[in-house]
Specification:
Elements: E1 3-8, H1 15-24, H2 29-33, H3 35-38, E2 44-53, E3 56-65, H4 69-72, H5 76-85, H6 90-111, H7 126-141, E4 146-149, E5 152-155, E6 157-161, E7 164-168, H8 171-176, E8 182-185, H9 194-203, E9 204-207, E10 213-222, E11 233-241, E12 245-256, H10 264-273, E13 278-285, E14 291-299, H11 304-314, E15 321-329, E16 331-339, E17 342-351, E18 354-360, H12 362-372, H13 376-394
Parallel strand pairs: 1-4, 4-9, 5-8
Antiparallel strand pairs: 1-11, 2-3, 6-7, 10-11, 12-14, 12-15, 13-14, 16-17, 17-18
Helix pairs in contact: 1-7, 1-9, 5-6, 6-7, 6-9, 7-9, 10-11, 12-13
Length: about 400
């Protein structure tokens, strides 16, 4: 079974709220309080306390930095070096670096400066390091394999920053969350921070309602302020995915007889980037006997509009038809095996806890083939054999 975490953004999302919610859901608090030493921050203390927001009991995390102000303002390179040097498990380290990269790219794009010249101001503090690394360390400690996030609250307001007064959500947060689902709310508070956006952008596998799961744990993480219209908490729901669960999907299609063949792969890529589950092309005969194609995309309801927009923008169609469908899905797990000294990811499909499908990731096989000079089919076969042997030992 796949272990799921659902982020229910009642009061929005920020780095400290993610950490607090995961601790409240059962992640060991010592993994968080030990992080300053692991990251080489001897003057930093992480405090985990209990509080409540609008009567909802919750955990609260605060990062206290007693170091001089000049030591708190770190560059992107400084933050990256601290993570690379830290004694973190491979997966949390990899995801922490990826989230930092997302954050740096978004800030650099918004402020129109090269990443190497980027000054992160308040985002260069110890809080950013603790938030990014802590989130993935705690997810790993809970054994979470898949993260799904609720629609994010889009609150219009103004936020004071080192760059001046910015609209909320901040430009960097929105740049990080392309493809995410938002819902407008009537409040002027900042409900989505750049660090929270970087964490969820890297961790999240999907957006929308709670997926089918067997509930195990619930945690509440408190934001710093009290909000007048809602509890300022992030709720995380942790449990096992239900195998063979039925889900709702949307089929989006457009028939084309005037799109240059060279542009078809670009349209397919754009659909995937918008959140499509799958995209395929079917040759057809269209009106007046013209040869053509049908672009078909399968998507979750929460990204239907984004995928439809991708088809409209990147093909020559004047309209996209949509049909609601039901889909039965296997639970999925990912494993890593080694072929010729290189890591290859393998995807497992499970039904009622039983593995019924095993598939090495083609891109990994192709990469290993290119690096070793071996045929991709040989790498694929060896990865499959290694995965089956690994699964046999785990049973």
């Amino acid at each position: 079974m796949t272990r799921l975490a659902y982020l229910d953004c009642i009061g929005g999302i920020a780095g400290d709220m993610v950490l607090a919610a995961l601790v409240d859901a059962g992640a060991p608090a010592e993994r968080l309080t030990e992080l300053p030493a692991v990251l080489g921050l001897p003057e930093v203390l992480v405090e985990v306390t209990r509080t409540s927001r609008q009567g909802v009991p919750a955990a609260h995390v605060e990062v206290v930095d007693a170091g001089p102000a000049r030591a708190r303002a770190r560059s992107v390179a400084d933050l990256r070096s601290a993570i690379e040097a830290a004694a973190l498990a491979p997966r949390p380290k990899e995801r922490s670096l990826a989230a930092l990269g997302r954050l740096a790219r978004a800030e650099a794009e918004v402020h129109r400066v090269p990443q190497d010249e980027l000054s992160l101001h308040e985002l260069g503090s110890s809080d950013t390091l603790i938030d990014l690394c802590g989130a993935f360390v705690l997810l790993d400690a809970l054994g979470v394999e898949r993260v799904v996030c609720s629609p994010l609250p889009y609150a219009r307001g103004l936020v004071g920053t080192a760059h001046g007064i910015l609209p909320s959500p901040g430009p960097a947060a929105l740049a990080l969350l392309e493809g995410a689902t938002f819902v407008g709310v009537e409040t002027d508070a900042e409900l989505v921070t750049p660090t929270g956006a970087a964490i969820v952008a890297e961790a999240c596998d999907g957006w929308g309602p709670l997926p089918a799961m067997r509930l195990e744990r619930v945690g509440y993480g408190a934001g710093t302020r009290e909000l007048p219209d809602r509890p300022n908490v992030l709720r995380v729901v942790v449990g096992e995915g239900v195998a063979g669960a039925r889900t709702d999907v949307v089929l989006l299609e457009a028939g084309l007889d005037d799109l240059l063949p060279e542009l078809v792969p670009d349209a397919v890529d754009r659909c995937f980037a918008a959140g499509a589950i799958d995209v395929w092309i079917t040759p057809v005969q269209m009106k007046k006997g013209r040869p053509g194609i049908v672009v078909s995309a399968l998507a979750r309801p929460e990204v239907e509009a984004a995928v439809a927009r991708a088809i409209l923008e990147h093909t020559t169609t004047l309209g996209v038809r949509a049909a609601d469908l039901r889909r039965y899905e296997l639970e999925r797990e990912h494993r890593e095996v080694t072929v010729a000294g290189h890591v290859v990811r393998v995807k497992l499909g499970l039904l009622d806890g039983r593995v019924v499908n095993v598939a090495p990731e083609h891109d990994d096989c192709a990469r290993v083939a290119a690096e070793t000079g071996r045929p991709a089919k040989v790498v694929w076969a060896e990865a499959l054999a290694a995965a089956q042997e690994l699964h046999g030992r785990a049973r």
